Amino acid sequence: MTTTMNNNDFTHIMKGRRSIRAYDPAFKISREELKEIIEEAATAPSSANLQPWRIVVVESEEGKNTLRPLIRFNTQQNDTSSAMLLIFGDMKSYEYAEEIFNTAVEQGKMPPEVRDRQLESILTIYPTLPKEVVNDIVKVDSGLLAMQLMLTARAHGYDTNPIGGFETDQIAAAFGLDPERYTPVLILAIGKAEEEGYESVRLSADQITFWK
């Protein structure tokens, strides 16, 4: 879907977003549209363009049954949403560096000498970084994707709910991922809202900004 959006459209999307907990359980977003939403959201920026986000789309009854005991007080979203998007950060995302940068050269988006210089730096530094440093990097990057997912879903006419309350030590293995490699970041419920949701209050720019 190709659309042209002006500033008013984008502001409307941002301000119209609500955190929705109850969805129409009879409504299902097609896999084709979910894939489109994910591809649009995956234009988010990331450190060294390594795109460390990985998404498990939980849409089947079996998948939701597996997820239900792991999400504490968020079972309503699980039971009524079209899908639950489990967002993980890949601790070894640098393994995709050559593919990413080679493709950039092939598409004329990067000169070969820039690719070679950046690959040398990435493949030298990233494998040696402490685990906690990499964990912070992939969580920040995956958080950028999550925000774009919420806005993209809204642009498609759907609503979301970001969920941080879940069993972070169990969720990767429960869905067949290596918990040492894939660190859980966030879960997003997505679907057709069955409630309006609340318009929440935000602190003013003066309260959250410091000028120096």
TrEMBL record:
This is NADH dehydrogenase. Residues 15-192 form the Nitroreductase domain. Belongs to the nitroreductase family. Coiled coil: none annotated. The lineage of its organism: Bacteria, Bacillati, Bacillota, Bacilli, Bacillales. It comes from Paenibacillus cineris. Keywords: Oxidoreductase. InterPro entries: Nitroreductase, Nitroreductase-like. It comes from the Bacteria.
